[in-house]
Amino acid sequence: MSLRALTFLVVGATFALYIYIAIKARARTTSEFYVAGTGVHPILNGMATGADWMSAASFISMAGLIAFKGYDASVYLMGWTGGYVLLAMLLAPYLRKYGKYTVPEFIGDRYYSKGARLVAIVCLVVASLTYVIGQMKGIGVAFSRFLEVPFQVGLVAGMAIVFIYAVLGGMKGITYTQIAQYCVLIFAYTVPAVFISLHLTGNPVPQLGLGSTLADGSGTYLLDKLDLISTDLGFAAYTSQKMSTLDIFLLTLSLMIGTAGLPHVITRFFTVPKVKDARSSAGWALVFIAILYTTAPAVGAMAYLNLMHTTQPGVIGSVNGNLEYSARPEWFKKWEGTGLLKFEDKNGDGRIQYYNEKNKAFAAKAAGFGWKGNEMIKVDNDIMVLANPEIAGLPNWVVALVAAGGIAAALSTAAGLLLAISSAVSHDLLKGVFMPDITEKQELLYSRVAMGGAIIVAGYLGLNPPGFAAQVVALAFGLAASSIFPALMMGIFSRRVNNTGAICGMMAGLTSTLVYIFWFKGWLFIKSTAMLPDTADNWLLGISPQSFGAVGALINFAVALTVSSMTKPVPEHIRAMVEDIRIPSGARSAVDH
User: How many CA atoms lie within 13 Å of 269's alpha carbon, on the beta-carbon side?
Assistant: First the structure.
């Protein structure tokens, strides 16, 4: 069976499964639509949370980052997993104890202000829309290659599938669909990793294969080989640190607190029956996430090794000890058709020279070979995981499985994000502010209409993403870190922060981060002549746009605390509510006596 036919079969079967689950678990009340009726078992919720969390950025893009950035990409592993520890320890149990549907609802009640709730809605929608753009990019990448359709067509197909099972099933349908999607994506991620690790190192466990010697009998460690290839081509060593220490620290912090502030993740902890289950659910989610996250470094490193130095005869040649492609392999030609991989034969020799032309010493050496510059003019990070099985020559069924896994990862997170957006519009904006008297049936209808609108907007923005999936997602984490996380933390652990302080803090954090991102990246795809080049030389103190969320969070905290100290104190009943969230009433009575 051809790869295209097999991919249609595998992906079609998974789509049929998702839609069947959505129909069987259709939400019929607002409680089922928003929080799955708060009846999901902690282990199942942990699995659904893992799928919700492990987006296209984790499945498709993170290993691509590791492949091309090496050591520096470890910040994504540390930040995204470390954020779950913060979430489990500092937020999930307390928010579940409060028992409301959404993050803006908690912020509106805690800060006794519809204005605070409105600002929280804006923060949530901006962060979630930015995040969902990355998912749409992942869907388009997977469809465009394996179903051999244009990127735009693939994106629209993904939107249609999300629309069917998310609008129909709500949180209840999404939860049980995400459990199935987790099984698909984790199987699709680990199976090729096992094959490739076994082929390259003789070790079937990818996590161990990363630190093993190559199976070619040379006795060379895999990472040493990557360092050698990188330096031979004029790049820095694969395992060396390239980013500044300050930028690494701030990016890790931004990803951690952004994780703890993302509404679609927090909402998952409202779906379990008890407060204890919320903490347990977070622990199980971390276990399920760790399976992929501990495999990702091996996948990225091995994908890069296969790309640079595959063992297929005739694909890679050697000119004076320097690597170059002697011909375009078949997988290369197929990915060229997507527009995500391009080369230009600058010297007309029919070969592809790939090296760091910015390295002056190596560029001079390359000129001696008759090379006219780096000919690999585009390698989109997002292709590495999807192309890896083809590069390694794995069977078609493995390639089709990876395509289904990548699509599952993007769809699962997109559904969670879109539900968070629709809940903010229908429950927080309409029911909570403008139309408090609508019936449950009307609210459910508005929720579905809002989700449909969110899908259309997200798809439109996904057609022109401002970067590869993980990069766009990192920007979303920065926005959540600078706006939502501080408001939640101060709402739970500080009785001094009032409504005015919280509103000013959220606006200051969000605005400062948006301005910084716009200055270097553009925003909503508006390109300004005033924008500075997105390079470390132009960044403030070497802080990248992806890392600025941590600075925005500090601004949020500082503004909120300062304004609160200068305005009216928090009412006594709100101070009592904060105490009740953190300390069970029985325990407080025991302490008082």
Answer: 33
Please give, one letter per residue, the 3-state secondary structure of 126-137.
Answer: HHHHHHHHHHHH
Contact (CB, 8 A) for 475 and 521? yes
Measured CA to CA, the distance from residue 379 to residue 365 in angstroms comes to 23
State the virtual CA torsion across 107, 112, 114, 117 in degrees, nearest 10: -10
d(CA 271, CA 285): 14
Q: Which class does domain 3-303+390-587 fall in?
A: mainly alpha
Residue 122 DSSP SS3: helix
CA 52, CA 159: separation in Å to the nearest integer? 16
Looking from the CA of 251 toward its CB, the CA atoms found within 13 Å total 23
Q: Which long-range contacts (CB under 8 A, 24 or more apart) does 580-589 make?
A: 581/94, 581/97, 581/98, 581/492, 582/94, 582/492, 582/493
Number of neighbouring beta carbons within 10 Å of residue 371: 22
Q: What is the DSSP track for 310-336? A: --STTTEEEETTEEEESS--HHHHHHH
User: Which helix (H) or strand (E) segment is 379 a member of?
Assistant: strand 378-379
531: exposed, middle or buried (Cβ count in 10 Å: 0-12, 13-18, 19+): middle
What's the Cα-to-Cα distance from 100 to each of 34, 124, 276, rounded to whole Å? Answer: 10, 16, 16
Q: Please check whether residue 76 is in contact with residue 312, taking contact to mean a CB–CB distance below 8 angstroms.
A: no
Residue 345 sits at the vertex; the CA angle it makes with 341 and 346, to the nearest 5 degrees, is: 125
Cα(14)–Cα(572) distance, integer angstroms: 53
Q: What is the phi/psi pair of residue 378, to 5°?
A: -155, 125
Note the pTM of the prediction, 2 decimals: 0.81
Q: Does the pLDDT value for residue 304 go beyond 50?
A: yes
Model confidence at 414: pLDDT above 80 = no
Higher pLDDT, 178 or 590: 178
| DSSP code, position 239 | T
Q: How far apart are CA 70 and CA 303, in angstroms?
A: 12
- Residue 342 DSSP code: E
**Residue 546: strand, helix, or coil:** helix
User: Mean pLDDT across the stretch 147-154?
Assistant: 74
